[in-house]
Design goal:
The chain is of the alpha/beta class. The chain has one domain: Rossmann fold (3-Layer(aba) Sandwich). It is built from six helices and 13 strands. Strands 2-1-3-4-13-12-11-8-9 form a nine-stranded mixed sheet, sandwiched between helices. Strand 5 and strand 6 form a beta hairpin.
């Protein structure tokens, strides 16, 4: 079983790859459509602006491929910008349409007197159970680096929230798409546990085929 990290030219692909290797997963970083179609699960990392991220995905034809794989039931994990791109749209830099995999809009964080971007460890409170968060405490700190966060249309799509001046959605899930606003690859043991959980989700997804 292979997990593919989607290489669309943005973000910390190598760090994500190393984190999956650390938990013993077979992982590849690639933009090749055939390798992405053959993988048991996909991870979309990302650091940077939403409009550039969407432009890169479209230029490589990876927007359609991601939607195709999701429709087939393939587990997909979006990390930071990779999670935001799954939403319908973002207000960043004047507004851009996203993949529309999950309902809602990505908006600038309400930060009051606090600085943006929001950088550092912040406690996430899990509001619903999920295979993605199995074995983690109800409240757990993860490393965040962002100025925008999603506002899901459906409250049930939110798995966990954090607070930076006001609460924001930090973990989401819709069908076989999972998203985290933080960086699990930089979040020590808790982050590695979350990635291991995703690897198990991928393994279960292909188990009937393997048998």
């Amino acid at each position: 079983m292979t997990i593919a990290v989607v290489d669309y030219g943005m973000g910390n692909r190598r760090s994500v790859e190393k984190a999956f290797e650390h938990i013993g997963a077979n992982v590849v970083v690639t933009s090749d459509p055939e390798r992405l179609r053959a993988a048991a699960g996909l991870v979309v990392p990302g650091v940077g602006a939403f409009p550039r991220g969407m432009a890169n995905l479209r230029e490589l034809g990876l927007d359609e491929l991601l939607c195709e794989r999701l429709a087939q039931g393939t587990p997909v994990l979006g990390i930071c910008l990779g999670m935001q791109l799954a939403f319908e749209r973002s207000t960043e830099q004047g507004g851009t349409q996203g993949l529309g995999v999950i309902g809602g809009e990505v908006r600038r964080l309400e930060h009051g007197a606090l600085k943006l971007p929001h950088i550092g460890w912040n406690e996430v409170s899990f509001t619903a159970s999920s295979p993605l968060t199995e074995g983690l405490p109800e409240r757990c700190a993860f490393y965040h680096v962002h100025s925008f966060a999603p506002v899901p249309t459906v409250r049930e799509d939110i798995l966990g929230t954090a607070v930076y001046c006001t609460p924001f959605a930090s973990v989401v899930a819709h069908e076989n798409f999972y998203g985290v606003q933080f960086h699990p690859e930089k979040s020590s043991a808790a982050g590695l546990r979350l990635l291991a959980n995703f690897a198990r989700i991928c393994a279960r997804a292909v188990a009937p085929v393997a048998s």
